[in-house]
Amino acid sequence: MENEFSEMKGVRPSNEELRRRVEHVKSIIVHHPIYMTVLEELEMRFALGNDSLTSECLYLYGPTGAGKSTVIREFVSRYPPFSKTSEYSSVPVLHVKVPLKATASSLASKVLLDLGYPFPTRRTELNHVRSLIMEREVKMLILEGAEHLNSKTINWVKTLIGEVNIPVVLCGISESMWMFVNDPQLNRLFTNKLELAPFRYGNKKETSAFLGFLHVMERQLPFAKPTNLTEKTIAERLYYASLGVASYLMQLMIEATICAVNDGDDSIELEHLNQAFERIKLISRPFIVNPFALDDFELEAELKREKGNNFRAS
Ligand SMILES: Nc1ncnc2c1ncn2[C@@H]1O[C@H](COP(=O)(O)OP(=O)(O)OP(=O)(O)O)[C@@H](O)[C@H]1O
Ligand SMILES: [Mg+2]
């Protein structure tokens, strides 16, 4: 066992201990193959952009909860700002979260703020943004929340890209792909498009990637005894419940940990996953059944049943 969590032997520990174990689960990050592909792509774009003649742009997309922010956070943490002079810091990777319903001026203000210039602006300030990007020696710009851009802010971003000549990563949920449909110029800037897709459970390769994720997870769970997530009966139920989206898997793990610790149990069992599932409401899947409450569970049949119900209801 890789962890330092002692046996509870049926006795519920203190809330402090519960908190420690839950925080441990929240801190687990699995470096699964798709995650690593994105991380390596970011590294490569960063390296290629150094003193390049043209910007090395990348569009990173995926469904909500797939792990885009998580992987970006890890990449950005590798290049923290550092003091250059007593007056300003160098910011190798500028990570900006696009404000909700962004306008060109609110986006410009946010970029300036993240560059350490805390004075809001009413204007679009492209010149100011450009000179601060150069002054702070920014080597890559990451704009997260592409779904909050509209045609005006997209134009602002395009102009900025043309002026700064550094790699720009635009990141958003899959639906933000619409941006490229009506804007061939933007599409040309972001020819490189990379999906952080959810896990699939189909062919051998896909299934083994999903089982790999569960394996890393089960080894790090904060319990004295091993939990078996990779056993077919559990893994298929977990896949059905999450459809391979990392955030749902993590929510289940967090809630199941709470249930197990509250019962003083030393591993996560089917019953804890059953209770955990009941606590998490998946609004987007009205016909989902609790797979952990079923004695017999057949992944394909249940997915088919859900699809049929969705079709009849539409
Ligand atoms: N590789 C991973 N290992 C462990 N947990 C992960 C991983 N990727 C994502 N998660 C879990 O999923 C949650 C959601 O991830 P994240 O916020 O990165 O998704 P996102 O793709 O940015 O979603 P959104 O489009 O809604 O912003 C994280 O808080 C974390 O719990
Ligand atoms: Mg995110």
TrEMBL record:
<dbReference type="Pfam" id="PF05621">
    <property type="entry name" value="TniB"/>
</dbReference>
<dbReference type="InterPro" id="IPR027417">
    <property type="entry name" value="P-loop_NTPase"/>
</dbReference>
<protein>
    <submittedName>
        <fullName>TniB protein</fullName>
    </submittedName>
</protein>
<dbReference type="InterPro" id="IPR008868">
    <property type="entry name" value="TniB"/>
</dbReference>
